[in-house]
Amino acid sequence: MDNIIIVPLLAATLRMAAPLIFAGLGGVFSEKSGVVNIGLEGMMIMGAFFAVFGSYTTGSPIIGILFAMIAGGVIAAIHGFLSIHLRADQIISGTAINLFATALASFLIGPIFKTGGQTNIVKGLSYNLPGFLKNVPILNSLNWFVILAIVLVFVSNYVIFKTPLGLRIRAVGEHPSAADTLGISVYKMRYLCVIISGVLAGLGGAALSIGITPLYRDGMVAGRGFIALAAMIFGNWKPFGTMWACMLFAFGTAFQMVAQGFSISLPNEFYQSIPYILTMLALAGFVGKTEAPRADGKPYIKGER
Questions:
Q1: Which residues does 127 contact at the CB level (< 8 Å), separation at least 6?
Q2: Which domain holds residue 263?
Q3: Exposure of 302 in the CB half-sphere (CA atoms within 13 A)
Q4: Which InterPro entries does this entry report, sorted A to Z (predicted)?
């Protein structure tokens, strides 16, 4: 009986964690370079919608994923322009992007799909395993987004902490003036990282739509961009820490789905609030115990000391 509950719970946790991991990794890249990105929510919304749009118009979920990554990257470039070039308040810029993305996706549903509030069901990404793996518990209940998310955690950790590019990213996020004197372009590195964050957040949106439910509907992202941001902070701005934090929050989502089938009579709203309660408790417990990059959220003015 325990296996009947535990195996689906673990599989659901991994599936729900994938979108958070993509967006959380995006947040790590952006903030390691010194740009706060609370626009992850909006970038996920763009990714979720355009993944469905791409699959709908071409019949290919792979093209849909590319659409999602491009859409996330484009809106991230806007955030980068406002935050880096114009030195706008990064929190306000991110908030504006979240509002804009929500409204744009909601508006586009009507003229493109001729429906209201929800798109048509489109072709999702098939998950075909070799014969000998099809009977492996948990593994046979995942999708390719889960595997890609875990691979990208290792890749991101290697890039940030083991390569010259990663050293430059961390330099402009910690001491941009010193990095500038060494010939590192602070602006270029920050633009690169913000756009990477948008591409990854867009991929997270695609993992949520065509990776789990092959459609887009209003409110689908449901604050996951903010949860990913919280996971990044909880994970101390590191890829592996972010991944484990995403797993914790995804477990809350998976548990509320399974728990609604228990015989305990509680309002559905209570179960639905579990992942958000976990997020608040985790952040409250780790306030002051994590350390952001020193220049995070601080616009850089070339030549200023």
A1: 142, 143, 144
A2: 8-121+146-286
A3: 12
A4: ABC_transp_permease
